[in-house]
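dumping this here before i forget
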Amino acid sequence: MSSQNLRPNAPANQRRTQRILLSVALRVSGKQMDGSPFVEHTHTLIVNADGALLQLRQAVHLNQPLYLRNVSTGEEEQCTVVDISDGASGVPEVGVEFAKPNSRFWRVSFPPADWSTRSPEAKRYAASPHAVQVPGKLPASKK
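structure:
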């Protein structure tokens, strides 16, 4: 398999929701090319409200339906393979998209779609005296 993106017409960096680097243990199931079922235990590399990027040794193809089971919660969601690429570790990286967006599946909170660090609300919050400071970081001095 080549290292090129199998979706050459997809615009670069086009994201509907924020990505989060998060390792979630998964049980992935689906059908092999011959129709026989497979199950593989793996983990995510990146998650977002629409799906995830995960490592998968089982050969899959674009548009293939899969089922992801969150090992911690037991929750299961149907998804579709939307991207396949060579992984840095030699294990293919597979992008999957949920049939319906489900940010709760990962048990993390995603900001609203229109949120931006450049929004007036974010600037107002960062300038407030109650804003949380990152340890070891000093606020920028005014000139």
